[in-house]
Write a structure and sequence with these properties.
By secondary structure, this protein is of the alpha+beta class. The protein has eleven helices and eight strands.
């Protein structure tokens, strides 16, 4: 399959014309259907883009302004591309998401928002969210979970050496303080644009947006599903570039964007405490497992992208 590379963060004149009516028209659905991206044999329309940006603003609690919507365009297109790839791969592997899967997801949303059975549709309307957009997002997330369980997790092994290595780290550093962390991981081929977007998210969080909600919408780490939750981590176990920022960040504050090998990271720093001397082998193995799943999932997704035809038309 032919691979066509495009820089998703450069707008063409055509793209600017398309966006001029996508985001300024009073009646969006009276406007012309326009394809904004192609993923293999499927397209992404201006309507899908608009609806997803609206969903993202509502879900993450961002300030709704023309500037915010404009800034969300590049990353939203990338998100929709990834979701298309995930759904295409799940279909290829016969791991399609069923109605039962979606109904279970809807049930979970109702419970989290303390809704009664059947109140899902009215809840979405009250929030100004298109049901189709949320279901598309949910379907892609469920499809990706199935892919990870089928093609990634079964092939991950944890060796005795890896466990003993972590144990040695804990034993040698357990006198150091521990810090409670949440994270957001942002990756991109264009670091400067990602850094600018990270600063935008920090501003939104400082203006009242929930860190966990923002992490669920934007973070590319496996912790995103749990709102960026990491938990207690020995400060001395952090990489030097992260540690140097964390030690200077006050409790219950947000760090500046940190450039790491994996991408741009933002942390929410909670409380600090003296390290726990107890050793939980199950937690150690789970920690190693999640790290490996995170790494291998990103590799798998990158290979999917490389082997696909992707064209961004704005």
């Amino acid at each position: 399959m032919k691979l066509k590379k495009r820089n998703s963060y450069i707008y063409s004149f055509l793209g600017l014309l398309v966006l001029s009516f996508i985001f300024t028209a009073q009646n969006l659905y009276a406007q012309k259907f326009v394809i904004v991206a192609i993923v293999n044999d499927e397209s992404i329309s201006n309507f899908e883009l608009y609806d997803r940006i609206n969903l993202t603003i509502k879900s993450a609690g961002l300030q709704d302004s023309p500037q915010t919507r404009k800034e969300l365009i590049p990353r939203t297109i990338q998100t929709l591309i990834i979701e298309k790839l995930q759904l295409q791969k799940s279909k290829e592997l016969s791991l399609e998401v069923t109605d039962e899967d979606l109904n279970a997801g809807i049930k979970s949303i109702e419970q989290k928002n303390k809704l009664k059975d059947g109140e899902f549709d009215n809840f979405l309307k009250s929030q100004g969210i298109m049901k189709s957009s949320l279901l598309d997002q949910m379907k892609a997330q469920l499809a990706w979970k199935k892919i990870v369980r089928k093609k990634i997790q079964p092939f991950i092994t944890i060796t005795d050496f890896e466990v003993s290595e972590v144990l040695e780290q804990i034993k040698s550093k357990k006198k150091s303080d521990e810090v409670f962390l949440y994270e957001i991981l942002l990756t991109s081929e264009k670091q400067s644009e990602t850094l600018k977007f990270a600063e935008k998210l920090i501003k939104e969080i400082n203006n009242g947006a929930s860190f966990s909600d923002v992490a669920k919408e934007f973070s590319e780490s496996s912790s995103a599903e749990n709102g960026g939750f990491i938990g207690w981590i020995p400060i001395n176990n952090l990489s030097e570039e992260i540690k140097s920022v964390i030690v200077k960040t006050k409790n219950h504050s947000i760090t500046k964007p940190i450039e790491t090998a994996e991408g741009i990271r933002i942390f929410r720093v909670g409380n600090r405490r003296k390290a726990d001397d107890s050793i939980d082998m199950a937690k150690i193995k789970n920690f190693i497992l999640m790290q490996k799943i995170d790494l291998e999932s990103r590799k798998f997704l990158n290979n999917m992208r490389k082997n696909s035809f992707i064209e961004i038309k704005i």
